């Protein structure tokens, strides 16, 4: 069942999404060689709490943290740890915040210091693919149009699309229908309508598309251990078009010239 949201509900989604975005902006100030992901977790939890939100992932099916940490070959759902970030790493931080019963979900992959040119190019393409997906999310189109836009954009540039995880509907629940795969055929899947709220989140690999899950049951990494990138916005379909409710503006402000 796909729940279409009222304008009032979309405003609540916007409030939650804004706190998600501001929290990622806070994280952006700290991402640098020498910091641990545990430290980033503490900073994020305090910020969310101080601003009246609740970290939706913490405790969700036993997930132990507010954010997912995706270092280099980690695709999704990595735990924070005492791992110290190093020059040349990439770090995805994926966050869902609940404010007043509605969720906002966003992910950004950061460069830690300077990264290899091929890794930089992967990040740029993955972020561009997110916006290609958003452009395709028009009322009257189908979910497959989003999927195909992301897949085509990335594969044309030689990257591969992770199959095991998808974008999703979002609202009172963090994961609602429909699924929003990053691969698929144009004209297929559910019809996109005004009031739909979806999280679009390309997960794109430099090497092969294959992934494996670590014994902790959560951490998902590339099988070939080559890097993976991940960007995500929560969007609402308003007046026929997808409007991102999350934003990278706070990250841009924090990173200045280092923003890609
Ligand atoms: N941001 C993730 C997503 O887009 C949230 C899943 S993490 C979990 O689906 F721990 F909560 F499952
Ligand atoms: Co999501």
Written account of the structure:
- The chain is an alpha+beta fold and 260 residues long.
- It is 30% helix and 25% strand.
- It has helices spanning 7-28, 37-50, 117-136, 143-156, 249-255; strands at residues 54-55, 67-71, 74-76, 90-99, 102-111, 160-161, 167-169, 176-180, 197-200, 203-205, 211-213, 220-222, 228-230, 233-238, 241-244.
- The protein has a five-stranded antiparallel β-sheet. Strands 1, 2, 4 and 5 form a four-stranded antiparallel β-sheet that branches.
- Helix 1 packs across helix 2 (37-50), helix 1 runs parallel beside helix 5 (249-255) and helix 3 (117-136) packs antiparallel against helix 4 (143-156).
- It is globular and about 45 Å long.
- 52% of the residues are buried.
- The model has no long low-confidence stretch (mean pLDDT 98).
- The structure holds 2-amino-4-trifluoromethylsulfanyl-butyric acid (MF3) and cobalt (II) ion.
- 2-amino-4-trifluoromethylsulfanyl-butyric acid is lined by residues 57, 60, 63, 68, 77, 94, 96, 105, 199, 201.
- The site of 2-amino-4-trifluoromethylsulfanyl-butyric acid has 10 residues, from strand 4.
Q: What characteristics describe this protein?
A:
260 residues; alpha+beta; 5-stranded antiparallel β-sheet; 4-stranded antiparallel β-sheet; binds 2-amino-4-trifluoromethylsulfanyl-butyric acid; binds cobalt (II) ion
